[in-house]
Amino acid sequence: MNYAEASAATATGKPIEVCVTGGKRRYVHLAQVGDRVNATLFSTVIMSYYPDGRITLDTGGFETLTTTATFNALLPDGQVWKTGGVLYYHPYASVADAQPFQNGHLELSVP
Q1: pLDDT tens sequence across 50-72
Q2: Cα 50–Cα 43–Cα 55 angle in degrees, nearest 5
């Protein structure tokens, strides 16, 4: 999902089903806040989309399977995974370009 898609999805006001973990469906709520669109999982803003293509990912302290699966469902490209207790993001094009999260936070520039 990119900024335009996220912004359009806010018009429905309905939550988006993103994944199933622990046998339960998980939903994200999207809301336009100023110039960005926030994606909220439970009560935590975990992603923000910006008109210039930036996307911020933030675990909110919850580095869980559900958070990781939600990132992967909502990212327009690439994948988030956890290894050795550290979350990483990499574009599908190159695992060598993997970027580690810093304190549960990562900012991406997605064309």
Answers
A1: 999 999 999 999 888 899 999 99
A2: 20
- Calpha distance 99→106 (Å, rounded): 8
Give the position of tokens 């999207």: 30
Q: Is 1 exposed, middle or buried (0-12, 13-18, 19+ CB in 10 A)?
A: buried
Structure tokens at 35: 């110039």
88/16 Cα distance (integer angstroms): 24
Residue ranges of the alpha helices (H) in 1-111? 3-9, 65-74
Summarised one tens digit per residue, pLDDT across range 69-100 is 999 999 988 889 888 888 888 877 566 678 88
Contact (Cβ atoms closer than 8 angstroms) between residue 18 and residue 28 = yes
